[in-house]
C-alpha cells in the first residue's frame, strides 16, 4: 500500500529528489517550496511560508492518517532548533551510540 502514498505525492506535484528517495520537494514559486521527508511511519515537513505549510499539512491530512505534532524537536536521531528571529534552522545528528557488539 505504500506505493499509493508515493504515487499520490507525485500526482499532486511533489518530486522525488535524487540523493534520497525518502525526500520529496514541491515548488510553489522559485523561492517558496515544501520539503517532505518520509521514513516508515514518520514524516517531516519543512517550508519557508507558514500559510502554505498549513495548507499542505491540511491536504495531506485529508488523504493520510497523520498527526500534527507541532514543531520538530527530535526525529530519527536528528535534533532541530528553530531561531525564528534570525530565520535559521539548526539541524544536528548525533553520532550513533555503538557498544561494539553485533
Question: In words, what does this structure look like?
Answer:
This protein is α+β, with helices and mostly antiparallel strands. The protein has a domain at 2-68. The chain is built from 2 helices and 7 strands. It has helices at residues 2-11, 50-63; strands spanning 15-16, 23-27, 33-39, 42-47, 74-75, 78-83, 88-93. A 4-stranded antiparallel β-sheet has the order 1-2-3-4, covered by helices on one side. A 3-stranded antiparallel β-sheet has the order 5-6-7, with no helix packed on it. A hairpin with a 6-residue loop joins strand 1 and strand 2 (23-27). It is globular and about 35 Å long. It starts with a helix and ends in a 9-residue tail after the last strand. The mean pLDDT is 80.
Whole-number radius of gyration?
Answer: 15 Å
Measured between the Cα atoms of the first and last residue, the distance is 33 Å
User: Approximately what portion of the residues adopt beta-strand conformation?
Assistant: 25-35%
- What sequence of helices (H) and strands (E) makes up the elements? HEEEEHEEE
- Can you summarize the main beta sheet? 4 strands, antiparallel
Query: Order of strands across the biggest sheet?
Result: 1-2-3-4
Helical amount among residues, as a percent range? 10-25%
Average pLDDT number: 80
Could you tell me the number of beta strands?
7
Structural class: alpha+beta
Report the principal-axis shape: globular
Figure out the total of helices.
Answer: 2
Poorly predicted tracts of residues: none
Amino acid at each position: 500500500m505504500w506505493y499509493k502514498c508515493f504515487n499520490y505525492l507525485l500526482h499532486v506535484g511533489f518530486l522525488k529528489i535524487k540523493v534520497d528517495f525518502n525526500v520529496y520537494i514541491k515548488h510553489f514559486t522559485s523561492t517558496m517550496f515544501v520539503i517532505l521527508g518520509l521514513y516508515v511511519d514518520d514524516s517531516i515537513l519543512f517550508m519557508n511560508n507558514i500559510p502554505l505549510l498549513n495548507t499542505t499539512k491540511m491536504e495531506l491530512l485529508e488523504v493520510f492518517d497523520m498527526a500534527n505534532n507541532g514543531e520538530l524537536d527530535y526525529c530519527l536521531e536528528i535534533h532541530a532548533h528553530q531561531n525564528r528571529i534570525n530565520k535559521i534552522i539548526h539541524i544536528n545528528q548525533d553520532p550513533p551510540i555503538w557498544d561494539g557488539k553485533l
